[in-house]
Amino acid sequence: MAQKPSIPKGTRDFGPAEMIKRNYIFSTIQKVFIKYGYQPIETPAMENLSTLMGKYGEEGDKLLFKILNSGDFLSKADDALLEEKNSLKISTQISEKGLRYDLTVPFARFVVQHRNELSFPFKRYQMQPVWRADRPQKGRYREFFQCDVDVVGSDSLLNELDLIRMMDEVFRLLKINVVIKMNNRKILSGIAQAIGAPEKMMDITMAMDKLDKVGAEKVYAELHDRGISDDAIEKLKPVLKLQGGNCMRLEVLEDLIGDTPDGATGLKEVREILDYLSAFTLESEVEVDQTLARGLNYYTGAIFEVKAADVKIGSICGGGRYDNLTGIFGLPGVSGVGVSFGADRIYDVLTELNLFPSEAASATRVLILNFGDKETSYALSVLQQLQQEGISSEFYPDTVKIKKQMKYADQKNIPFVIMIGEEEMESGALTLKNMTTGVQDKYVVEEIIKHVKK
RNA sequence: GUGGAUGUAGCUCAGUUGGUUAGAGCACUGGAUUGUGGUUCCAGGGGUCGUGGGUUCAAGUCCCAUCUUCCACCCCA
User: Fold this and answer.
1) How far apart are CA A388 and CA A112, in angstroms?
2) Helix ranges, A65-119 (H)
3) A403 contacts: CB under 8 Å, gap ≥ 6
4) What is the tens place of the pLDDT at every residue in A417-446?
């Protein structure tokens, strides 16, 4: 079929069954956000490219979806550039808007723009789709939803505590076993300083981040390729090999990087957060992982990543502290910290582990069958009574075979069916069929309401 | 952006070294059952074999291009 319609690569439709499950995820997350005092905001799907460009590194810029200017945009473009066919240069002339890449940068823009209307520390949550022109693959889409919580305008590490507790609570409610990994950019920069390659911090961390994926040898090889000296790699080995509990790791790290200025601060921050945490009982394990890096280069302090313990899918939640994100938009000195829940990956995890609650199947509780014009007004009054009682119910709109209507109820997983024919109208005793047991009996409306209500 | 695989009915897939009219299961529609779904039985509809070109007497099958989806890399939720 040639003209079968389709949707763009990496995007998806969500049918009713999927939406019910997705809403379960969103409402669970939202419940926790609200409980901790965070407030909702939304920002537009598109932002000015000047807001987005240069915030996600060179790779990130390539992954931005750009929107063509309206009108006759080509006539305003530079002829020489058009002739040159240089897409990159032309794009700045014919496009000035792009789809947002994440929710953090638009949030920073929002904070700067509305600084006078906000009271700080400002705690917000935001659950909206983001777009990346990535090549799609497993657990990776071009349009996906993020659920962000951030607090800006507070340096306190109590905010980190807040976030960790929220991550723990969300995944406890969703019944996903997770490991919350924590590290600190200052520790990473301390490591780079300690091995004598402070300017190579990004290279070192990016290579190190792959440790559990590719193994130590490949990490060494990559470090070498990235121009790290053998001497420095040799010094890095004890850091990479470092295993064991949080206390032990911190002690060893203290020895290795404790005398670098960044390293010392980083370790102190991690200790402080762990200290706060010790007063709480968490379901998930919080693990200090000195190899955790995270790509986004605006992070400056704590960084987090949550991995599902029972599914291989990459991280399902991540974030960290950024000290100067609003600075790029002209408001320096405002520190923020936040995490982002990947709703789509959480969906995949719940599907794989079969953890969606079963009652998420159907919303309609009662279907009233349509017997014909004679019965319609009677049926409608019953419908109204049920709905006034808050029972979600529907009346089949067409007079078709009972068999077809029953099948509709069955497929929509509607637990009760009411039949109102001539006989029922005369007696006022309506036939109520329980679709799960197959049992049916006659009741007056009031009894039906009692019966059908949970 | 790089490399590899894939595409046949709404869905999941068969289809021989190229050879007449391309099949199955599920789903759908009708009937057995004119007021009873989920089980069973019978019948039926539905395909330009992703698209465009090429080779050949002959292409679902071989070649090229293109798109889709998937997998890995880069990177990331």
Assistant:
1) 47
2) 73-76, 79-84, 87-94, 104-113
3) none
4) 999 999 999 999 999 999 999 999 999 999
Helix (H) or strand (E) holding A337: strand A336-342
> Cβ of A388 < 7 Å from strand B?
no
pLDDT score of A311 more than 70:
yes
* Predicted local distance difference test score (pLDDT) of residue A4: 67
Nearest CA to the C1' of B8 belongs to which residue?
A1
User: Which among A150, A51, A33, A162 has a CA at the least distance from the CA of A101?
Assistant: A51
- What is the identity of the amino acid at A425? M
Gap from A251 CA to B14 C1', Å: 62
> CA-to-CA distance for A412 and A408, rounded, in angstroms?
6
Mean pLDDT of all residues in A342-357: 85
Rounded Cα–Cα distance for residues A204 and A106 (Å): 29
ipTM: 0.82
Residue A286 and residue A276: Cα distance in Å, rounded? 12
Confidence at residue A360, expressed as pLDDT on a 0 to 100 scale:
53
pLDDT in tens, A356-404: 886 655 689 999 999 999 999 999 999 999 999 999 999 999 999 999 9
The pair of structure tokens assigned to A452 is 């059908």
Residues A423, A441 contacting (CB under 8 angstroms): no
CB neighbours (10 Å) of residue A35? 10
- Rounded to whole angstroms, the Cα distance separating A454 from A446 reads 14
For residue A415, say whether its CB is under 7 Å from any atom of strand B.
no
Angle at A238 (CA atoms; ends A237, A244), nearest 5 degrees: 130
pLDDT, position A362: 66
pTM greater than 0.80 (yes/no):
yes
Segment A51-108, tens digit of pLDDT: 999 888 777 888 899 888 888 877 777 777 777 666 667 777 888 899 999 999 999 9
Chain A 420-449 residues in 7 Å CB range of strand B: 421-424, 431, 433, 435-436, 438, 440
Pairing of strands A302-308, A315-322: antiparallel
Rounded to the nearest angstrom, the gap between the alpha carbon of residue A300 and the centroid of all alpha carbons in its chain is: 22
Among the ranges A9-18, A196-205, A212-221, A337-346, which has the highest mean pLDDT value?
A337-346
Nucleotides of strand B lying closer than 7 angstroms to a protein CB:
1-3, 10, 28-31, 33-38, 47-48, 50-52, 67-77
Q: Which nucleotide is closest, CA of A405 to its C1'?
A: B37
